Amino acid sequence: MIRKYTFGTGIRTDAVTVPIPSSEGPVPYLEGNADHTQYRYPLSDADAVYGLGEAVRGINKRGWRYRSFCRDEANHLETTEAMYGAHNFLVVKGEQTFGLFFDYPGSIVYDVGCEKYDRMTITLPEPDYDLYVIDGASAREIIRQFRHMIGRSYIPPRWAFGYGQSRWGYKTAEDIREVIRMFDQNEMPLDSIYLDIDYMERYKDFTVDGAAFPDMEGLVKECGEQGIHLVPIIDAGIRIEKGYPVYEEGVAGGFFCKDAEGKDFIGAVWPGKVHFPDVLNREAAEWFGSRYAALLSLGIDGFWNDMNEPSIFYTEKRLEKTLRGISRYAGRELSLQEFWDILGSVSRLGGNEEDYENMYHNIDGEMVRHDKVHNLYGSYLTRAAAEFFRKWDPDRRFLLFSRASCIGMHRYGGVWMGDNKSWWSHILLNLQMLPSLNMCGFLFTGADIGGYGEDATEDLVLRWMELGIFTPLMRNHSALDTRRQEPYQFGRKDAFRRITELRYALLPYLYSEYVKAAVNDDMLFVPLGLEYEGDPRAAQAEDQMLVGESIMIAPVYRQNAQGRYVYLPERMKLVLFRGASEYKETMLEKGDHYIPIAPDEVAVFIRQGHILPLAPGGRRVSEVDCRALTLLVCEGSEDARYTLYWDDGYETDVENPDHSTVLSVRAEQQPGQER
Amino acid sequence: MIRKYTFGTGIRTDAVTVPIPSSEGPVPYLEGNADHTQYRYPLSDADAVYGLGEAVRGINKRGWRYRSFCRDEANHLETTEAMYGAHNFLVVKGEQTFGLFFDYPGSIVYDVGCEKYDRMTITLPEPDYDLYVIDGASAREIIRQFRHMIGRSYIPPRWAFGYGQSRWGYKTAEDIREVIRMFDQNEMPLDSIYLDIDYMERYKDFTVDGAAFPDMEGLVKECGEQGIHLVPIIDAGIRIEKGYPVYEEGVAGGFFCKDAEGKDFIGAVWPGKVHFPDVLNREAAEWFGSRYAALLSLGIDGFWNDMNEPSIFYTEKRLEKTLRGISRYAGRELSLQEFWDILGSVSRLGGNEEDYENMYHNIDGEMVRHDKVHNLYGSYLTRAAAEFFRKWDPDRRFLLFSRASCIGMHRYGGVWMGDNKSWWSHILLNLQMLPSLNMCGFLFTGADIGGYGEDATEDLVLRWMELGIFTPLMRNHSALDTRRQEPYQFGRKDAFRRITELRYALLPYLYSEYVKAAVNDDMLFVPLGLEYEGDPRAAQAEDQMLVGESIMIAPVYRQNAQGRYVYLPERMKLVLFRGASEYKETMLEKGDHYIPIAPDEVAVFIRQGHILPLAPGGRRVSEVDCRALTLLVCEGSEDARYTLYWDDGYETDVENPDHSTVLSVRAEQQPGQER
Fold first, then answer.
1. H or E element: which one contains A63?
2. In terms of domains, do A297 and A180 share one?
């Protein structure tokens, strides 16, 4: 049951697609203050708190404070409060089990047992939001209700499940060809290459640098013939440059965000000074979305939207003021305090939230200050693109994912987990964010494998790949000036090849589970605590996870580890993979196990009564053959059945029953029988 | 066997006290380059690398690059290369097992399987050092040989093993009294309160702020009467202030480091502009050490030396140049590159290593550029203090520890692990650094419990305490403007009290093991891999550790965890403590175990054939009574014996056999018999 409590009449997030009538009376479970800006809930020792989407720390969010406010924050430390996404859904599971969703586009702070271990406090800046309180038979069921209310999750084309190679620093068409060549030479699977900001002319959206990429259309075609998709980045800011059509159109149409004086707001990001398209304005959003045509018409069918928190390196006004302030110190004796003041003023130039208070949207004719609706920006920008893609080709799925997001955007695209680091702890964070994001509707997601910032080592990238083969978005991405980390850069090429091939062998399963999760409003990555409800040990499992209905994974995320402990909440079959066709099966009893897992091995645990179908692999998603599946099962699960979903990889009619086939081991063992 | 290879004739670290004659011929094990500035060693899959003292990552250092160059670096991330200490001893254990010590006071980079997983590369800037290559029957034995060569580790007075409370921000005598009052009110053990820079007059070393601490001598006495020691901080920089005696004496005596022009080098740190005492100069060091008399004469008997890398916030020259550079940009249009340049120039103001190239020491009349001998600075500063303490009272041990260090300083004082953070990952890092530091001679060490930077939560501090009760230095310390984290700030006061009392109950054991480790050149914290040599699983244990001869610990360092996995390399007895006198004993077989450990419990594992003596506890170290010990043993270990070391807590004659008593369980069970 979902109850909705409405406070104020301000702007909502448009997350909810199945309207719920407002309830009267006090909000259940929570103790609210008089002006409806704060709620408290006493946490008992056994309570766990799931959700909040993109956030640091564990699957159980208890023990820290989190802030919903999209931020360009590349240091995902334990104490980081706000990340790129703002996801206001959580489930308390314990003495009482219930879900909460705050439909509000501004900043919210969740203190989940941080200030006091036995208290959750949720604080909003103003009483102007809808609060949904969800009851259900279980946490999982509450999540399903919520997901149903917010509408079906985005489903990408199948090729987007292939391995993607990315790096900030592929500067020319020749660089792209070289990457493909190296993958081919090493017989490593590859489906897409991502173009970071390098491909643009002076970082101008919807342009191509003609010197570095003299024939982008030809290159797209050339790659396409090899089965490789090019996926360009689109940034939020539009460079201020006379004669640049997007800029000129935006100014002429009044499509840019305004400042307090009604002039087009100016920020500085990669292109230098920019205006931000006012994607919260219907007309401007439509216009911005339509600009993607410039690249779609070159044959491109996938995009990633970046910098759309929006990130602002600085605003001219603040920079001017800061530099003027600093100039006053030059040539004279400074106190330590004055020195700190200088450092402080410089450090406050970038990502200064006060800048958002000088930025305005035109929403249905009303000027709305940006900070009040901040979390919608990246979402609406991505939605603008998605809505245009539907016009461009309504019968085709496009790849689209975003850095900033809020709930609602899950219907239009995926998210990547932002600018992480080449840290072992970020492998675990990658794992732990998956279910939280799934709960909030984001099924298409993954982290930058190998880490975006800082230097990666071979063993880190290999272990990270061993998790990455299970995430819908499987992309190796790294920043300029960090160590190169394409799998062919390392010594153990064979291990990288075999692990990537395993992804392709798992694709029929992963793709089926993905589409089923989307269609059934379910999670793809399920914490053990949400599946094995009566098992207190399962609730503690922070580094293992169910992936779909049939398997559990338990990645190794510690350097130099040759194995790890795994808790089996039921009898399972361990399949220790060294590649798509090389694996060892062992039945294991419910309970605790230490599993040796060599650096080039992946442990998969198959659940009793379930089937893991395995394809022969391939070097492109298009090569994955569903007609020759091996079905892996536990001993004693010979009656198991599995519903395989397989379409043409692009079509939008995902509920067409023709796409589903029921597999069973017996059928497989008796060829000639109908499956 | 230790072989020494000498290159060049430059300054050494004075780490070695047992001289070794130089060998001729090629350096064994390593492949060196022609000019003796780089060594390589091929790492086999089974090789582990131990050592390097204060450094990030695991006990096994394999998989990253580390730099020996003392740095004021408060972000102990996975990718941090240099920390406060510079410790050039490591042991390769695997196909071949050997130790390496580079006696060199400048920067060294250790690539331990980072660039290539199967290669270690060690790079020095110049061929001017002694390299010691150590062979032995085992890694442990190699470590003992090394430790013997570098001389006996520092032993603090016994009270320094008590619980210490610290915080940057105890600003007045009244603040100190309030802390003591709160500990007393809550019946929490306490032996010392640390004074951070707040106590000084304008951050001037060897002064006391008369307004905030109107009668320091009286306060020291007042605290002393309650059994509490006050432990003031001493920083490296001496404030430039006319009339300040230390400044005036330093200038007059020529005791400060010089710049390239021969003037006293100027840096800015907490006091504002400072000169740095030239502690590498014998006379200057003696003078600096003698200044501690100002505080010793107030009754103070413990110090911590900070900022002695030396940390430099900025130098005037660089600041001037930077501000002048920035001023040029004011009032005009900036490119993004110019913006980055401004940010870069400001970020390079602090901790800029180029500043060290303009700083000089007078070593026996020769002007030596600081960067060449950088790692000696903090060590020699601390040594200067220690040598003066010996003059002040040769028969008494004083508490002394330092932030910066290099091997050699271990004879004069301990180290704390520097400015860490309130991160769960830093509990594990705390554990993992212990054996590495022990190997390098640093036995008296510990991390800032609860974390120095950022906000701590109650559960974090409690779990961290549960490790901290085993570290010789047990100090809760936090930074200004972070959340208060004294144990009495939290709800579960009873748990904090019981855990701290357990420390006092363990003191007879911890103190005995500490002194024995010092006397026998042994480690106090021993990785399982160094004790159970034939056991590959023991070699993998990165989050458990032997503490002394009798016990293994396995702290919980994950938020919300109610237990953890533990590997038992032999049959052991689990003692699950809830306090000094409340515990549950269970025999466990060799192998893997999941151990439930509630948030207020500490798991200790007693080894077969060994005794863990347990005192009744107490609220001061001076109250700990060794006459009423409970002896815990495994079943079947009734013949075990334990050598208890107990002196008056101050005396220097630690080898006096009267301080040792052999305990046995049988004796205890038959009262009246002589022990």
1. none
2. yes
Quote the tokens at residue B135.
């062979």
> Which domain does B626 fall in, by range?
509-665
Cα angle A138-A144-A149, degrees, rounded to a multiple of 5: 130
Mutation for testing the A interface, residue in B61, B75, B78 having most A CBs under 10 Å? B78
> Running DSSP on this structure, what letter comes out for residue A483?
P
Q: Is residue A388 part of a domain?
A: yes
* A324: closest CA of chain B, how far (Å): 6
Examine the predicted complex and report whether its ipTM is higher than 0.95. Answer: yes
A364 domain residue, yes or no: no
CB contact under 8 A, A313 and B329: no
| Whether residue B81 has pLDDT greater than 50 | yes
Query: Contact B323/A313, CB-based, under 8 Å?
Result: no
Given a cut of 50, whether residue B268 has pLDDT beyond it is: yes
**Chain B partners within 8 Å of A457 (Cβ):** 63-64, 113-114, 117
User: Are residues A295 and A441 both part of a single domain?
Assistant: yes
- Is residue A212 located within the same domain as residue A301? yes
In this predicted structure, what is the pLDDT of residue B671? 42
Interchain contact, B117 vs A314, CB within 8 Å: no
Compare all CA atoms of chain A with the CA of B111 and give the residue at the minimum distance. Answer: A457
Query: Cis bond leading into A105, ω under 30°?
Result: no
CB-CB neighbors (< 8 A) of A114 in chain B: 455, 457
Residues 396-455 of A with CB under 8 A from B: 421-425, 454-455
pLDDT of res. B333: 85
Distance from CA of A542 to the nearest CA of B (A): 9
How near does any CA of chain A get to the CA of B453, in Å? 10
pLDDT digits (tens, 9 = 90+) for B121-158: 999 999 999 999 999 999 999 999 999 999 999 999 99
In this prediction, residue B672 carries a pLDDT of 39
Backbone φ and ψ for B510, nearest 5 degrees, come out as -65, -40
Residues whose CB is less than 8 angstroms from the CB of residue A51 and which lie 6 or more positions away in sequence, other chains included? A61, A87, A89, A90, A91, A99, A436, A439, A440
In 3D space, the residue among B616, B629, B617, B642 whose CA is nearest the CA of residue B668 turns out to be B629
Residues of B in contact with A336 (CB under 8 A): 268, 270, 272, 313
Domain CATH code at residue A474? 3.20.20.80
**What is the 3-class SS of B120-144, one letter each residue?**
EEEECCCCCEEEEEECCCCHHHHHH
Q: Is it the case that residue B440 has pLDDT exceeding 50?
A: yes
Pairing status of strand A192-195 against strand A238-239? unpaired
User: Residue A645 sits in a domain of what CATH number?
Assistant: 2.60.40.4040
Ordered alpha helix ranges (H), B272-376:
282-290, 293-296, 316-327, 336-347, 370-373
Let me know how long chain A is. Answer: 675
- Note whether residue B493 is domain-resident: yes
* Interface subset of A 53-112, CB within 8 angstroms of B: 57-58, 60, 62-64, 77-79
pLDDT at position A617: 85
Domain count, chain B: 4
Q: One-letter amino acid identity for B223? A: C
Residue type, position B470, single letter: F
Residue where a domain stops, chosen among B108, B126, B150: B150
Tokens standing for B346?
């400001």
B164, B330, B419, B474 from B477: Cα distances, Å: 8, 42, 9, 10
pLDDT confidence band for A670 (50 / 70 / 90)? very low
> Among the three residues A477, A507, A537, which one is the final residue of a domain in this structure?
A507
Residues with Cβ within 8 Å of A242's Cβ and at least 6 positions away in sequence, in order, are A248
Block residue for tokens 């999209």: A70
Contact at CB, A117 and B421, closer than 8 angstroms: no
From chain B, the residues in CB contact with A330 under 8 A are 320, 323-324, 326-327
Of chain A, the percentage scoring pLDDT greater than 90 comes to 96
